[in-house]
Amino acid sequence: MATDWLAWHEQYASGSALNQRLELVRRFIRAALDAQPPGEIRVLSMCAGDGRDILGVLDGHPRATDVRARLVEMEPVLAGRAREAVSRLGLSAIDVVTGDAGSTDAYAGIAPVNIALVCGVFGNITDDDIRATIEHLPELCAAGAHAVWTRGTFEPDLTPQIRRWFEESSFRNLAFEGVPGTTMAAGHVVLDGLPRPYRSGVRLFEFLPDEERPSQRAIRGPA
Ligand SMILES: C[S@@+](CC[C@H](N)C(=O)[O-])C[C@H]1O[C@@H](n2cnc3c(N)ncnc32)[C@H](O)[C@@H]1O
């Protein structure tokens, strides 16, 4: 059966491990926002869900009206919820697109961004797709861009390799933290090297069928 991403979002109940991951991700996003110089701040979110990570940070943040963002989410109900949240915040420069975040076409007109969010993605795609997404990220980024990412540390733990892939793509690790007592983890990196020009039509990733998704290992435990 295909994952019910609406039900998945219900795990964001207060105090849950996922909610603790959200707090970690929001802390990294806040640090990325606070590091931005005056002027427009461009943001993209791949597989944004209902957008609660970035939108929760922007709520009441002094830089909120400087942000121009594109949130890309395939599930129409979740995208609709993100749109409602944007409207409640009165932030007219935030677009929520119902569509495929796995192609660079989704970022035409918003790239190069100052902050890229890749949260809830790396546990659902192949290792090759993770590597491709990271390798192509400098084509979506402005100089000095920050990126926030997540991936569980369940065995075999791919997070050391993911951090190496970021380094090989000229990103410097700023933080990598786990939620204590769980396999949930998030990272924060900054682009030290040169960004590359945006290219349309590049395939970054595709979500795997449920039974093949690495994140299922965290749920099932050791076979
Ligand atoms: C694990 S959830 C993460 C949601 C959000 N980023 C978060 O961390 O709360 C993965 C999300 O990716 C969406 N999704 C799956 N494949 C997608 C694709 N190709 N393009 C855009 N969204 C996709 C799902 O609908 C789901 O909402």
CATH architecture group name = 3-Layer(aba) Sandwich
Q: Biggest sheet, strands in spatial order?
A: 3-2-1-4-5-7-6
CATH class: Alpha Beta
Largest sheet: 7 strands, mixed
CATH superfamily annotation: Vaccinia Virus protein VP39
CATH topology: Rossmann fold
Task: Round the Cα radius of gyration to an integer and report it.
Answer: 16 Å
Q: How many strands appear in the DSSP assignment? A: 7
Name the helicity range. 25-40%
Number of helices: 7
Provide a descriptive summary of the structure in words.
This protein has 223 residues and is α/β, with parallel strands linked by helices. The protein has a single domain (5-220), classed as Rossmann fold (3-Layer(aba) Sandwich), CATH 3.40.50. It has 7 helices and 7 strands; from the N terminus they run H-H-E-H-E-H-E-E-H-E-H-E-E-H. The chain has helices spanning 5-10, 17-34, 52-58, 76-89, 127-136, 159-168, 215-220; strands at residues 41-46, 67-73, 94-98, 113-118, 141-150, 171-178, 185-191. The protein has a 7-stranded mixed β-sheet, with helices on both faces. Strand 2, helix 4 (76-89) and strand 3 (94-98) form a beta-alpha-beta unit. The protein is globular. The protein starts with a helix and ends with a helix. S-adenosylmethionine binds next to helix 1 and strand 2. Residues 5, 8, 47-49, 53, 72-75, 78, 100-102, 119-120, 207 line the site of S-adenosylmethionine.
Quick structural overview:
This protein is an alpha/beta fold and 223 residues long. It has helices at 5-10, 17-34, 52-58, 76-89, 127-136, 159-168, 215-220; strands spanning 41-46, 67-73, 94-98, 113-118, 141-150, 171-178, 185-191.
